[in-house]
Amino acid sequence: MILTLITFLPLLGALIILCLPKEKENLIRWFSAFITFVTMVLGFWVFFAFNRNTAEIQFVEKCTWIPAFNIKYFMGLDGLSVAMLVLTPLLSFLATVYSFNIKLRVKEYFFFFLLLETGMLGVFVALDFFLFYIFWEITLVPMYFLIGIWGGARKEYAAIKFFLYTLFGSVIMLLGILALYLNSTPPHTFDIIELSKGQPFTHTFQYIVYAALFIGFAIKVPVWPFHTWLPDAHVEAPTAVSVILAGVLLKMGTYGMLRISYTILPEATKYFAIPLLILAVINIVYGAFVAMAQTDLKKMIAYSSVNHMGYCLLGMAALTPIGLNGAIFQMVTHGVVTGALFFLVGVIYDRAHTREIAGFGGLMTKLPRYSGIMIVACLASLGLPGLAGFASEFMCFLGAFTSTINPQVFKIVTGIAVAGIVITAGYFLIMIQKVFLGPLNEKWKDLPDINARELVAIVPLVALMLLLGVLPYIAAGLSTESVTALLASLGVK
Amino acid sequence: MVKDIVLPLLILIPLLPLLAFIVNIFFGKKVGANAAYISICAISISFLISIYLFFGLIISGEQTMEFKFDWLNFGSLGIQLGLMLDGLTAVMLVVVTTVSLLVKIYSVGYMHGDPRYSRYYAYLSMFTVAMLGLILANNFLLLFISWELVGLMSYLLIGFWYEKKSASDAGKKAFITTKVGDLGFFAGLMLLFSVGMTFNFKDLALLVSSGSIPENTLNWIGILIFCGAVGKSAQFPLHVWLPDAMEGPTPVSALIHAATMVAAGVYLVARTFFIYAHAPMAMEVVAYTGTFTAIFAASMALVATDIKRVLAFSTVSQLGYMIMALGVGGYTAGMFHLTTHAFFKALLFLGAGSVIHGSGKQDIREMGGLGKKMKITMFTFLIACLAIAGIPPFSGFYSKEEVLSAAFNSGHMLIYWTGTITAFMTAFYMFRLFFMTFTGTTRSEIHAHESPGTMTIPLMTLAFLSIVCGYLFVSGQTFEKLVHFGAEITAREGGEGTGSHFVMIMSLTVAILGIALAFFMYYLKKISPEYIAEKLSPVYRLLLNKYYVDEIYEAAFVKPVKNISGKLFKFDQKVIDGAVNGSGFMTLLMSKLQNLFDKVIVDGAVNGTGWLANKGGEVLKHLQTGLIQDYILMAAAGLVLVVLLKIIF
Fold this sequence. Notes:
The structure holds two protein chains of two kinds. By secondary structure, chain A is mostly helical. In chain A, about 75% of the residues lie in helices and about 5% in strands. Chain A has a domain at about 270-495. Chain A has helices spanning about 1-20, 25-50, 80-100, 105-125, 130-150, 155-185, 190-195, 205-220, 230-235, 240-265, 265-270, 275-290, 295-320, 320-350, 365, 370-380, 390-400, 405-435, 450-470, 475, 480-490; strands spanning about 60-65, 70-75. In chain A, α1 packs antiparallel against α2 and α4 runs parallel beside α10 (about 240-265). The longest helix of chain B has about 70 residues, at about 550-620. In chain B, strands 1-2 form a two-stranded antiparallel sheet. The chains are: A mainly alpha, B mainly alpha.
């Protein structure tokens, strides 16, 4: 029952919030924090209870739901999903703490926020397509409102763009799901695990369904060229929502590919490995270049997400143990690092009411604590060894370089991607120099340093950056067995 | 040496400075001026341990000790990290801890009163940790991790006075330039792993010597890994960051940009010599890169006027020497020169720091006659100059002679002669620096004073090392025995034999000629340097502008990258997002058109019918007058009409 409990606890919280009087803003805040905290503790419990030495689905909950269509209420965890099930409640809790500064329509905000958490958690535990799709769509609605109501200047545009774009993708994905259902051996099934076991799907069928599912997932990741909703949504969304967006929502795309496309459509997965590799490299290099051109700090971080999700795709395309484990690990580290970065951008925006990189200067002198943390987060993001980003990126690269799919092509194309590392270092260092170094811009001489609430939200992530950087095995070891099993089912060494 | 305590000792060596770092960075305000003592204490113990291990190895003659643990594990495939101790590591440990210790002592005086004093010591300590990790690593991954950390600490230390734009620029430039080299290194590692499936040095060495990896692949791996060394050791074409790095505090230059970090590249090539030994083409690339860099950088040192920049170019040049030695197979020679150079170059930098500290000047044209006021600085500086110029019995003489012998014996005559010319240039520019700084009369308003004891004691210690370490290591071939890489390397190392007398006499001759020329030009002033500069004006300007390499890079790389980035962003907004918004717009447009069609045609038909009925009714309603006679009239008219029709048809 643990998975049901974790998934629906935030929903329960959301419903209770609806019953609270809206004037009691502090009660609502603390109550939300309490709910997300408990969820987070449960998440950690799962982390410790999870058995790393098996590829079996764990914590299974399975019962018939709608017998007419053979739809089941099926939840479970394995190495592909467990890391995200730990990360999501963690980021949700920190984001809730950070959101204490929300003043506008507090009750609705936390209602939507908790609803969103249930949707996200559900995506990672659902193993029945029907259930999966419901959770997938649930995330859209609160996200739409969170951006549309509590967002920045162009919030309506960003919210609608986000909503329509992802809805478009998920509708096509739905077609793919239905095609899988209707072509499965009778009695037709929505059961993801059952579908991954020797279904009579022809190659052509696999290619078509793969493409349909891919559009849905690619928009979420986002894979170039489906990425343009991301900078708008990120820039307009309130800080905590940006964190969730980057930390969790993007991973629904890569997770979906691993969980569904990779397990159910093995032939298509191998067939599309090279195209995926090329898209990954475009994400890396293109994302890095465009990030460099940004003048808005938040937009720069947004594009750096495009850049970093490219590493994840790179590891996935490789179809090697190191690569796939690296990709899953990269989801976690990117969540941690970019989550922290978005918090940090929020911190400075709350104070200065601008995010213009060129408008700052010399903040290191005035805000030493903030600057130190921000620089550590930037270094983690640019892949400095000893911090979280390096280990996962390294694994993704190593995986791609040792790929057996087409070693020659993989080596050359990955070689190009390596250049992205320097561009990434470039834009972060340029930003650090403009914002933190040099003489202090007199305009900011009264800026207060980072406060306690912000530290509570950010310091755990910084600690994780260090921990995962030094001992990556803590998280990277979660997926080993599942990845081995997955690769065996793909028939790749 | 008791084997059981080696591992804890190896761990302690980087751990102590790491603790110093943690204390100083998090409790900087509390510890205040004690930051220095915390760092010095930590590194002192590391230094003593290193000395113990060093002599332990010499006495016991043990070869390699290795300790490893799992870092990542994927079922059958694991990546291990670990530490190792062999002769090469032991030598580097001693070099790094000695220079670190002295620099930290020296900094007490030099950085006195700096507002970020504890931060400075925190950074220095962390730098030492990274450097020690680099040389203790038993595998490429830990080496690479430490390598990058070294780069980061260098970035922070160069840009230590970050309020100055030139300092933060220099830090950024160093980080990015070395990162470019690291890309090659990174790719090389990947390639190496894809053929060897391990990062462990020993395992890889076995694999390479078994001959199962094709030579072509090894050449590629060798060249790619060398890219990393080119970046870190400031070899052409990635040398550009080092002269700029002089923006950092001078003790930092001594530690990082003379003795340790820049030597990391040389160390890398030495450590991976088992690859180069089987990759002849990569060896050639290494040899010629080093040779070219040696003379290229020396030529720029001839005209530089900033005391630290002269030393920076000299460092680049000497690093080229080491790389060159390794490239021609002179493994021991390269490492030997690294060791002697670490001491005398650190001494030169610290001496320069003392000059800057005492005189407040950095341009040697404004100095002169400082020797009278700063006797200790002058004498120690002179010893270092003699060492680098290659005058016996100073250490540089022995190592340089070995480097040149290696080149000579390997049959690379071009390399040998280039090296010899470089030696001449080295002797000349070093004594130009010496005479312009310390002799003659002051050329500007200077109130020089000798530096405090914390600064002069390290100078004297280093001077002592610069005198003795050459002879000590050569006698009984101590050094060679210690760092030697094992039997398989010897085959390649045809370069090292008995040093020929020709090479020795030749190198001594050019050194003396160089010094003599400097003596005539800058001490006796018999030859006017201005006259030569004017005569050779184009060459002079070329050298002064560092061959315009910075400008070329600016135009060829920096600007295009910015350009591409801006263009891609426009493309992103206009084309890709344009397509998204465009399709949104098109959908809206379509719906509007359909709306119009709906309204005009479909609804039009519906409404039209209604309208017709309406209008018809309106017309026809006039017929309904309500007067009974009208109706009768119409009825009658109708009847008539029917009858008429009947009659007609």
